[in-house]
Amino acid sequence: MPDLDAEVADSSKPDSSGTFTRIIHYAIGGLLVVGALAYWYLKPAGVNPMADPRAAEAIALVQTHRSEHAPTLLHAITNRVTELQDRGKGVRRGEWRVEHLQDDLYVVRVWIREEGTKQWFERDYSWQVSLSRRSIAAMTPAAADLLPKELRRPNPLVPGVGEF
Q1: Which end of the chain is more exposed for a tag (fewer CB within 10 A), N or C?
Q2: Backbone angles phi, psi at 57, to 5 degrees
Q3: pTM of the complete model
């Protein structure tokens, strides 16, 4: 017959491997929290345009600018994605990105990935924004196609790309 008092005494001893495992789990959890906070604090303005008020102003100038096919450029991009989805095509819109070039010049970008007949392709919409002049200029043909025709002027550096 087994000794019950011996079993009770053995179960009351602390388990050193369980304590060590618990410490490791808490340490990993703590490192994840510290890493997430450090990333949130140190991430570049291109990832979070609202961290830089001038970058936020640049993105707002582009998104609220008049478009050829919609009231604003933001609506034109959204309508393009919706049209492709309604046709049953695969489509994915990227995040709006802002890059600071110099002084008051910024570049605002967004891309749309579209499903073609055999493969996917990507359209890059890029605009250069001058905050001092409060103006935008298309940097890619896709971006130029969205601007109203009366505001397009030929860009001698890139054939087919308009600017104003």
Answers
A1: N
A2: -65, -40
A3: 0.65
Q: Residues for the chain: how many in total?
A: 164
Indicate the angle between helix axes 73-86 and 53-63, nearest 10 degrees.
60
Strand partners, 149: none
Q: Could you read off the pLDDT of 112-148 as tens digits, one per residue?
A: 999 888 888 899 999 999 999 999 989 998 998 898 8
Q: Which residues of 126-163 are buried (b: 16+ CB within 10 A; e: fewer)?
A: bbbbbeeeeebbbbbbbbbbbbeeebbeebeeeeebbb
Q: Which residues pair with 163 in a beta bridge?
A: 137, 153
Strands 91-93 and 120-130: unpaired
Task: Report the distance separating Cα 116 and Cα 101, nearest Å.
Answer: 33
For 160: left if phi > 0, alpha if psi spans -120 to 50, otherwise beta; the answer is: left
The stretches of 12-134 forming alpha helices (DSSP H) are 16-42, 53-63, 73-86
The CATH number for 49-159, chosen from 3.30.565, 3.40.50, 1.10.150, 3.30.43, is 3.30.565
Q: Comparing C-alpha atoms, which of 126, 155, 160 is closest to residue 143?
A: 126
Domain coordinates in residue numbering, the chain: 4-42, 49-159
